[in-house]
Design goal:
- The protein is α+β, with helices and mostly antiparallel strands.
- 35% of the residues lie in helices and 41% in strands.
- It contains 4 helices and 6 strands.
- The radius of gyration is 16 Å and the shape is globular.
- The termini are far apart.
- InterPro entries: NTF2-like_dom_sf, SnoaL-like, UCP030561.
Length: 128
Amino acid sequence: MCLLLMAGNAFAQTTPSLPAQLAQQQLDAYNKRDINAFLQPYADTVAVYMFPNKLLYKGKETMRQEYTGMFAQTPDLHCTLVNRIVQGNTVIDQESVVFKKGVPPLAAIAIYTISGDKIVAVHFIAAE
C-alpha cells in the first residue's frame, strides 16, 4: 500500500522541482556550449569535487575558466542524461558524455547540491 501511495504521489507532480530545473538548465547550456547560460544556475561560491571530497576548484569565475576552455576545445561535446534522481535539494544525474565523435562516451554521475535558488556544490563520479 505504501509503495502504491508513493507511486501515486510521484505521478501527481507535473512540474519539475527547482533543483531539477537548475540541473536541467545547466545541462541544456552545457550542450549548447553557452558559458553564460551554463553558469547562471551556479552560486558565486560553487565548490566542485571529485567524489567523495577531493576539491577540484571553488568559485564561479574558476568554473568559467575551466568550462570556457573545454567548450572551445571540444566541438563534439555532448552530455546525454541517462537517469535523474531528485531528493529534496539534491539532484543526481547519471550521464553519458561524448567528448569526441568516434570515441566511446564517458559514463559519469554528477551530484548537485542546491541551496536557495543556486547550485552550491557539484560532486563528480567518473567511470575509470
